[in-house]
Predict the structure.
Amino acid sequence: MDYDSAKVNEVVLALLYLWSWREYGAQRSWKGLDWDVLDLLHEQGWISDPKSKAKSVLLTEDGVAKAQEFVAKYFQP
């Protein structure tokens, strides 16, 4: 199946944000999604490196801002 990988990345970041929580001043989310997409989000500077022992990733300030933009784009009327 062909798909727009950029849109997939946007939706995954939006979902990470929707499922996230604030902890010690940082926005965290479980990293139970596709590893290739998580790597791409990390390369964009939107999340911390998913290749760690932690079960969650940190959303960067830029990642939170982009995630909020993508939530509005894909999930709000």
Notes: The radius of gyration is 12 Å. The first strand starts at residue 21 and ends at 23. The chain is about 50% helix and 15% strand. The first helix runs from residue 5 to 18.
